[in-house]
Design goal:
This protein has about 230 residues and is mainly beta. The protein is about 10% helix and about 55% strand. It has two domains: about 110 residues, Jelly Rolls, CATH 2.60.120; about 100 residues, Jelly Rolls, CATH 2.60.120.
Length: about 230
């Protein structure tokens, strides 16, 4: 019995050491780098049921897109632990410069896409140009576009398209990051360049260049739901 008890104490101490050890987000095993450019650094995050991340730093402001419902224990360094209940597709902005760990309290894996905004410091020092709309709901042809918020000069929107629904032709000045909340089967019709497919699984991301005029149609058989981050 003493040996069993000693082994349990060692295991407990080891787990405590693992969860208290602080690492950069790039060294946190549940965070998988999916895309990086001068604007963003994108991580695909997955934590198994009952599992937890290491304590890791968020050096930048970030936008998170949740994939599937989740219940989490969020432990921010220096603050009491908090239980979070998240909905599928829930999208939020969080200010950076803190460290935390997350434990999955649910019966399924916690998945999200974490998008670091690499120009956050510049945006604070020199505010970027204003968007013409910072909150709005647009009714599309067979869908909706909800402009949810603008943070650090980045405009974040959620688009829902029924089969056959489309975003009509419009000019996209700056680049965009597209995050698939559902599986996507889209056609992107770019003026002067023809039609190109956008086929993504839920949780996949795609960087779209700016300075183009285009229309987007859902050519799949299911509802298409995605989040876009627009940059000046």
């Amino acid at each position: 019995m003493r040996r069993v008890f000693a082994a349990l104490l060692l295991a407990t101490a080891f787990l405590a050491a693992q969860t208290s050890r602080k690492v950069e987000i790039t060294a946190e095993p549940a965070h998988h780098l999916a895309l990086e450019n001068p604007y963003v650094r994108v991580f695909e995050v997955e934590v198994p049921p009952g599992g937890a991340t290491l304590v890791h730093y968020h050096r930048h402001d970030y936008v998170s897109v949740n994939l599937g419902p989740a219940e989490l224990l969020n432990q921010v360094e220096g603050k009491p632990a908090a239980t979070l209940r998240l909905a599928d597709g829930q999208t939020a902005f969080t200010e950076g410069n803190f460290a935390h760990s997350v434990r999955d309290l649910g019966a399924t894996s916690f998945r999200n896409v974490t998008i670091e905004l690499l120009e956050d410091e510049r945006a604070r020092q020199s505010p970027p140009p204003k968007w013409d709309e910072e909150r709005a709901l647009h009714i599309l042809e067979g869908g909706t576009e909800h402009i949810m918020f603008v943070k650090d000069g980045v405009r974040v929107s959620e688009t829902d398209l029924q089969p056959g629904g489309m975003i009509p032709k419009h000019h996209q000045a700056g680049p965009q990051l597209l995050v698939a909340v559902t599986d996507l089967d889209l056609e992107n019709s770019v003026a002067g360049k023809g039609i190109s497919p956008i086929r993504l699984k839920a949780g996949d991301v795609r960087w779209l260049p700016g300075r183009l005029t285009h229309a987007v149609m859902n050519v799949g058989k299911q509802q298409a739901r995605f989040i876009t981050l627009e940059f000046h």
